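User: Can you write out an input/output pair for a complex, sequences first and structure second?

Assistant: Here is one pair. Inputs:
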Amino acid sequence: MRGSSVGDPPCVRLEALEVPFEIACTGSGAPDLARSVAAAWDWCTVDAPYDGDLACVQQLTVVLEQDAEELARMSAGSSLFARDLPTLMDRLSPMVTRVAVNERRRDLVMFHACALADPVSGDAVVLYGPSGTGKTTLARTLCTDFVYLSDETAGVAPDLRVVPYLKPLSIILNQGDTLKEQVSPGRLGLARPEGVPYRLRALIQLRRDPAHEGVATLDSLSTVDALPELVAQTSYSRDFERPLHHLADLAHRVGGVRRATYSEAEQLRPVIRAILDGDA
Amino acid sequence: MTRARRREVVDVYVEDGRAAVYSTEGMVLLLSELATAAWDVLGDDWTNTEHVAQHLVQRFGDPGEGQAEALTDETLGSLAEMSIVELEQS
């Protein structure tokens, strides 16, 4: 967190999917907002100014202002504004994700997925599925052993490198809360990437079945059967040249798509362990 | 007489006789073997549905009692509903 000179609003620098952001926090609540953003996004923050093309830096201006008249005045030209901190934090996360995904749409395949990896080998598993299939819960449960790469967007480069997106996890902490709290993965005790390259080893389609008992089951899907859901959970797939072939090729390079059926996150731990050990 | 032709699609991927079709409406549709074979016969120009039926009979056998034409019409009708085939009475 910084203010470049006296009078400048506090600003948080971070990277999302390797896209540099500067989040200027303004309004009477700016100090609290900047502290909260820096704390929740601590695994994404960077200290030094971006040393590449400054035009690549995504500038977001976020306003936290309780006074309605002042908020109306300040909201013009802002990226995001609200009168209370929880609302602002809840809305900031999808905005950063949306901007970052848009910026990487030409060079990454980005799945709506939880991504995790073996801390030693760097082999990574991408578990994709629509909202409600438990991706955040999976990350929260399994990434105490496996390295946390994302609970929402897994970016895969042409060389199969998985780009970490170490965003805060969006969690409803108290029953009845309508807004999710943005919690740093470090605060949840998750394992942080150590700088080794992470390489995609498996693509797993999530199927949550509340009636499922025992260890999660893993079924191989034919690529043609996997494609509808794979496309549905891939951002900007239509921008690829021959998108079905593009995704099919990616799937073939990691041995095809498998579907994991489970009810509780813990049921997936042995299955993922086996995949990463080459036993499944 | 009915004739049919393909509508523009984003991409088609075929594996083991079944196609996934990415429509311009942004949907990926999974076709049966029969529908894939019917789709395969069609092109950008109009094709009589009788010709499509003949092809399907060659490929899958004759269901008999005039059922080939009915099944072909049903299949092409489904593809038209998915907006990946255009039908026209001529």
